[in-house]
Amino acid sequence: MKVLDKKVALITGAGSGIGRAIACLYALEGAKVVVSDIDEKGGNETVQLILKDGGDAFFIRADTSKASDHQKLVEASIQKYGALHIAVNNAGIGGPLAPVGEYPIPGWDQVIAVNLTGVFLGMHVQIPAIIKHGGGNVINISSILGKVATATSPAYTAAKHGVIGLTESAAIAYATQNVRVNSIGPGYILTPLLTKTLDPATLGAIANLHPMARLGKASEVAELALFLASDKASFITGSYFNVDGGYLAQ
């Protein structure tokens, strides 16, 4: 029997990178996967990868900063598969780079809306649905910047710190209702979020910030997300797990 057999999983930001890796691994382990992203092309490509490997998935475009889109996602998941058991709130953006005194206010608003408010809006509709269908779990993707900071990412840092606190609050609130809520803090992962914006020399310098002297792989984050979604993690809730090559140990 596969780890997530007969489970229905909803994953935001699944059109590439970490979200795609989680979606594909969940499908391989038996889950029916609802792939969501603002990028229709990437989201449909993820679905095709899953179908090619014999999995079951479909795509819904959604902007995670909008409450109505989260409602649509949950309703479509239940309409298609009859239930919702797992939600992974992964969608996120990097935003501008500048110190607080020079940071553009529209950039702040957008990063907070997607990276923090989007997680709240997701759980706001996901958790009642999960309870209604017998319980399950939520996994929120934070960051190493949920624990530490960089000088030029104030909005991203604040949002990712907030995701950890929000996760802990939800975990406590629903601990007796068969819903587990945990967060993951990736280090710098080799995804399009990095490769599309940074040159090779900068990527090499970032890799060397990690004691393991390399960037992480999306698949390595996905393996932890699989464990947390499984019954093997049945007594784990309200926790934060970093996947960072030793970054936070320094």
Give the helix/strand class: alpha/beta
Distance between the termini: 40 Å
The helix fraction, in percent, is: 40-55%
Contiguous uncertain segments of 5+ residues: none
- Proportion of beta-strand residues: 15-25%
What is the spatial order of strands in the main beta sheet? 3-2-1-4-5-6-7
Number of strands: 7
Order of helices and strands: EHEHEHEHEHEHHHE
Furnish the topology, listing elements before pairings.
Layout (H helix, E strand, L loop, with lengths): L7 E4 L5 H12 L3 E6 L2 H13 L3 E6 L5 H15 L4 E4 L15 H28 L3 E6 L12 H20 L5 E8 L5 H4 L4 H8 L10 H12 L10 E4 L7
Parallel strand pairs: 1-2, 1-4, 2-3, 4-5, 5-6, 6-7
What does this molecule look like?
- By secondary structure, this protein is α/β, with parallel strands linked by helices.
- It contains eight helices and seven strands; from the N terminus they run βαβαβαβαβαβαααβ.
- The protein has one domain: NAD(P)-binding Rossmann-like Domain (Rossmann fold).
- Helices cover 45% and strands 15% of the residues.
- A seven-stranded parallel beta sheet has the order 3-2-1-4-5-6-7, sandwiched between helices.
- Helix 2 links the parallel strand 2 and strand 3.
- Helix 1 packs parallel to helix 2, helix 1 packs across helix 8 and helix 3 runs parallel beside helix 4.
- The longest helix is centred in the middle third of the chain and has 28 residues.
- The protein is globular, with a radius of gyration of 17 Å.
- The model has no long low-confidence stretch (mean pLDDT 97).
